[in-house]
Amino acid sequence: MNLTHFFSPAPDGCRRRLLATLLAVPALPALAQFRVEVSGVGLTQMPIALVPFRGEAGSPQAISAIVRADLERSGQFRGVDAAGASMDETTRPDMASWRQRSADALAGGSVTRLPDGRWDVRFRLWDVVRDADLGGQGYVVPQADLRLAAHKSADYIYEKLTGEKGVFSTRIAYVTQNGKRYTLWVADADGENAQPALSSPESIISPAWSPDGRQLAYVSFEARKPVIYVHDVATGRRRLLANFKGSNSAPAWAPDGRSLVVTLSRDGGSQLFQIGAGGGEPRRLTSSQSIDTEPAFSPDGKTLYFVSDRGGAPQIYRMPAGGGAAQRVTFGGNYNVSPNISPDGRWMAYIARTGGAFKLNVMDLASGTSTAITDTGDDESPSFAPNSKLIVYATRQGGREALMTTTVDGKIKARLAGQGGDLREPTWGPFTR
């Protein structure tokens, strides 16, 4: 992308069953089109008008609609009807008319096909309340990157209006099962533009992005047991990271990308080991008589969160990243698993079993206060966006597994709904694009 700043597991629930086993407790789908379904209402959403970009009707992508969906999915914005309006990045809009439509912000632009086949996408953002020009950007992109240009535009608008960095141009990875076929996908953060990274007749679970966003570690069952691979996203090449005796599972990258912590059962019970990103002999981190698994690093890399049944039931603990005494973190209920720490270090998302339902919870790590933020009962695999404002997770809706995003307070949820197959194991990539 040329950026110019011209204005300024085999069966269903394999991962859960593998975890349950460890803890001794209970044709490729058509993914070309996802949709966003906002199901909650926030109290402080900013009203913003996105006028259809000039030339958009001749573009393969409805740029303004993608920008609008991105912003609404964040929970920070509410779309204002822009029907009948016409403007582009060169227009000086009539702010009084937009104030009458109750818009606080306004954006419009253009999409132009260049003689060499690329597309020129431009936009300008306005503060309607203050009658201020907030600048804009332009992107010259091949047709395949038109969606990325729209996501970049949404990132710019989000950051200008909230002061926080947008995540719409980041990527997610997830796994689908369609019949007996499993596919690992890499997609835009809205679930669209999914590209297959790996397809297999055996389960794929626990994908984990490297900190630079170039590699995915995951667990494959193609060797008829859990084995960990590291996959280069750009080239598709992969290498075996851990295939020791017994089970090899739950890879978690250290924030510096130089090593991973994994769960190995090669010495008997499942314990945590640190292994270099290039492989080699792992170093044992835990030596309990219990099952220790599902490691997750704190953002500074100094603390390791993990799940253990050392207290008699699966709970989340933390210890120094190099090993040492563990401190219990969760105390509510008798089943708390799948910890994921927000990049700002403030929150921990996890799955708690309450009354037989598996619910997404968020804990304020400073106070230890936890809140269930879903009304579904089969949630899995929470993963924070790199700006710590959203969480992607898997759940079951309408009898099928689907991906959802939610704000940290649970007020705004959006479904990333595929056309076929069960969607699971989502993981949100870092800022890279």
Would you give an account of this structure?
The chain is 10% helix and 42% strand. It has 433 residues and is mainly beta. The strands form 7 sheets. The chain has a 6-stranded mixed β-sheet with strand order 1-6-5-4-2-3, with helices on one face. Strands 9-8-7-30 form a 4-stranded antiparallel β-sheet, with no helix packed on it. It has a 4-stranded antiparallel β-sheet with strand order 10-11-12-13, with no helix packed on it. The radius of gyration is 22 Å and the shape is globular.
Average pLDDT for all residues: 90
Number of strands: 30
Strand content: 35-45%
Main sheet, how many strands, which sense, barrel?
A: 6 strands, mixed
Seen as an oligomer or otherwise, the chain set is: single chain
- Rg measurement, Å: 22 Å
- Estimated helix fraction: 10-25%
Strand order in the largest sheet: 1-6-5-4-2-3
Shape: globular
Number of helices: 4
- Briefly note the structural class of the backbone: mainly beta
Residue runs with pLDDT of under 50 for 5 or more positions: 1-12, 24-34
Ends distance: 9 Å
Question: In brief, what are we looking at here?
Answer:
With 433 residues, this protein is mainly beta.
List the helices and strands and how they pair.
Elements: E1 2-4, H1 14-23, E2 46-50, H2 63-73, E3 77-80, H3 95-100, E4 105-113, E5 119-127, E6 132-141, H4 146-162, E7 171-178, E8 181-188, E9 195-200, E10 204-209, E11 215-220, E12 227-232, E13 238-242, E14 248-253, E15 259-264, E16 271-276, E17 283-284, E18 292-297, E19 303-308, E20 315-320, E21 327-328, E22 336-341, E23 347-354, E24 357-364, E25 369-372, E26 380-384, E27 390-397, E28 400-407, E29 413-416, E30 422-428
Parallel strand pairs: 2-3, 2-4
Antiparallel strand pairs: 1-6, 4-5, 5-6, 7-8, 7-30, 8-9, 10-11, 11-12, 12-13, 14-15, 15-16, 16-17, 18-19, 19-20, 20-21, 22-23, 23-24, 24-25, 26-27, 27-28, 28-29
Helix pairs in contact: 2-4
